[in-house]
Amino acid sequence: MSRNIQAVRGMNDILPDQTPYWQYLERVWQEILSAWGYREIRLPILEKTELFKRSIGEVTDIVEKEMYTFTDRNGDSLTLRPEGTAGCVRAGIEHGLLYNQVQRLWYQGPMFRHERPQKGRYRQFHQLGVEAFGMAGPDIDAELILLSARILERIGLADTTVLQINSLGSPESRSSYRELLVDYFSGHLDELDEDSRRRLHSNPLRILDSKNPRMQVLVEQAPRLMEHLDSESREHFQRLLAYLDDAGVSYQVNPRLVRGLDYYSKTVFEWVTDQLGAQGTVCAGGRFDSLVGQLGGKPTPAAGFAIGMERLVALLMDVGRQINMTEPQVYMVVVGEAAERQGMLIAGQLRNILPGLRLQLNCGGGSFKSQLKRADKSGAELALILGENELAENRVAVKPLRSGGEQLMLERDQISEYLETKFSQNKRS
Ligand code: ATP
Ligand code: MG
Fold first, then answer.
1. Which residue's CA lies nearest to atom 25 of ligand 1?
2. Which residue's C-alpha comes closest to atom 6 of ligand 1?
3. Residue 208's closest CA among 127, 161, 264?
4. Which domains occur in the chain, in start order?
5. CA 241/CA 193 separation, integer angstroms
6. 80, 162, 285, 366: which has the highest count of C-beta atoms within 10 A?
7. Which residue has the least CA distance to atom 19 on ligand 1?
8. Residues whose beta carbon lies within 6 Å of some atom of ligand 1
9. Closest Cα to atom 5, ligand 1: which residue?
10. Measured between alpha carbons, how far is residue 401 from residues 145, 224, 388, 407 in Å?
11. What pLDDT was estimated at residue 261?
């Protein structure tokens, strides 16, 4: 017996019961983003491996062990994108979108990381990414944070998430802080896990980001970057906090928030929930002023964030949010070949006159009884019934499926008006 082929581990099918949540999220943020002046950019899923090595950093979880990298038929090393910022910057430079300009961009789609699959952590997952280029001040950091707050508020998750924020300072202040960290951790060599020992000299800041519970005390007591910030970064941070205070957005300053990618500087932030277990970050971002220059463009200040869609959908479901836009409103029962042909015509006319009506036409035949069963199972509110008798009288029977009301007969030319009145309250927006 041949075994069924299954999906690749950590890569999920998103089934029709769940897609309404995805569509809902996409609709909400597309509306907000365009209202705030952000424009969509669509990017390839495959990029040259070099792009990610140069942007994310060689000594990061992503580049060290999580990338899906392969050599294509030409012998080029390609990688399925593990995140979107690098590709967005690459495209911005390549098409001259960044040079001496201000850009507000967004994209959404799948990302790929070879991580250990668990709740909230998959090998193919989806992000909404938002990036702003050409603005160096804390006002755009504030705008991005308020934008992410707006999205969370609109979908009803403002009360379940907390904003954490930190500053990583300038590359210069970070390098002197780095020395302090190396000294500190070198004094506790025996307490470091293997990953951290390896990073001690290559990327000691990442030790602060360690997820290993055994290292938490050590990390808590490490010197704090916030206390070693350069004056410009400190002022940038204070001004950002003032914007957030003005807007009434509450936040927690978290000195251990360093983010898993090397390209950040100054502002970093995350929206975190305690309702999803260990994978509680639903949105993460920050400033990355050196990335455009690092990838060959003219130095351009930039900041952005990414929302993890799987985690947001999980949170929506967790708080019991009902989203159901796909059940038909009307199920059309057609019994007999003549009725099937007329039914196809009537359905076509109704779809023309009422484009928003969710109408499902019975296909595949079946007795009156079995079609009514399908109608009931479809979740529709009404069945429109077309059988031999109705056909002869040029009428259609209407049977309420949920409310238990009386069945009635309608002339064919009354149907659309009847349905329009009936469903006018809950038209699809
Ligand atoms: P984490 O600390 O959870 O590993 P990260 O710092 O690697 O997150 P980013 O690269 O900043 O995450 O990605 C932004 C967001 O994308 C995360 O906050 C999360 O919501 C989501 N995300 C990241 N990796 C995954 C994954 N493997 N599966 C599902 N969602 C993910
Ligand atoms: Mg990660």
1. 121
2. 260
3. 264
4. 19-170+230-318 (3.30.930.10), 330-428 (3.40.50.800)
5. 35
6. 285
7. 308
8. 83, 113, 115, 120-122, 125, 127, 259-260, 279, 281-282, 284, 306, 308, 310-311
9. 260
10. 47, 64, 21, 10
11. 67
- What residue type is assigned to position 85 of the chain? T
- Pocket perturbation via mutation, ligand 1, pick of 279, 305, 309 by most ligand atoms within 8 A of CB: 279
What pLDDT is recorded for position 324? 67
150 in Cβ contact with 202 (< 8 Å)? no
Q: How many angstroms does the Cα of residue 311 sit away from the middle of ligand 1?
A: 9
CA of 138 to the centre of ligand 2 (A): 26
**Cβ neighbours around 252 below 10 Å, total:** 12
Shortest-distance ligand to the CA of residue 288: 1
Which residue has tokens 């983003």?
33
What confidence tier does 146 reach under pLDDT thresholds 50, 70, 90? very high
Look up tokens 């590359």; give the residue. Answer: 171
**Tens digit of each residue's pLDDT (9 = 90 or more) over 6-39:** 999 999 999 998 999 999 999 999 999 999 999 9
313-329: burial string, b at 16+ Cβ within 10 Å, e else: bbbbeeeeeebeeeebb
Amino acid identity, position 76: D
